[in-house]
Amino acid sequence: PYVVTENCIACKYMDCVEVCPVECFYEGENMLVIHPDQCIDCGICERECPAAAIRPDTEAGLHVWLDLNRHYSGIW
Ligand code: SF4
User: Is the C-beta atom of 39 inside 6 A of ligand 1?
Assistant: First the structure.
């Protein structure tokens, strides 16, 4: 799946939410998150994000962010 990371915290845009074909964005405490089991890996949101906050989970060092995305997407 794709993962929302720290650059999202200061971002006020919702472009990612609007383009996601499966509506798997959720609101975290101070940022948006992606439900890792619902994301279909299309990559559209990564290209739309003006803050470059969305990255594929195959990138190194994203485990903490993946856990956070999973946690907050399961709350609502
Ligand atoms: Fe939605 Fe595609 Fe982004 Fe996954 S990669 S969150 S399915 S827009």
Answer: yes
